User: Fold this.
Amino acid sequence: MIEETPTVFELVDRKIQSHKKWREANPSFSFDSGYAQDEPKIYISKELLSSLAYRSLSRAALLVYQDFLAKRIMKAVKRNRKKFWVTENNGEIIYPYSEALEKGFSRSIFRNAIDELQEKGLIDITHRGKGGRKPAKGTGDVTKYMIDDRWMDYGTICFKSPRNPRHKDTRKNRGFALLYADKKKAEAMIEKRNMTIRTNREKHF
Assistant:
């Protein structure tokens, strides 16, 4: 007995029925993308990507900025029937030194990266924390940041300086700066150090 060849419509119907059974057996699977739905993503506009501020960033500043972008909580809002994405936690973003150290940044490199991002209009400080001990579960008095858009005017006369720049310690009346301000004391200290080095060498030879 010769078996009849199924028509195209029958083959398509079989595929549809097979697909329905598979979806019923795998309800949590999504065909929207190749990644899980909660996969974290970083969105960068083409305008930002081609901007002078972004393309002139140092490697450390670029990595720190990407960390800031990953900390955003994005929310879709409608304005005039159009959909826009806004940063819901803008101004409340935290990035403590303790976290930077865990990610491989030294304090000086992280500090310089923050300064560069502020100076190029990519971020700004909304609240200056007191520093000191690591915050407990995010409840400590830590510095808070916002993702800024001043970068759009970077390199032009319209560019605005940071609203709340980090205050650099330029005091000269403390530590070694105070010591070297007195030339005689500095020379005496250097001579004492050299004498100690010579004495230690003589003991070993």
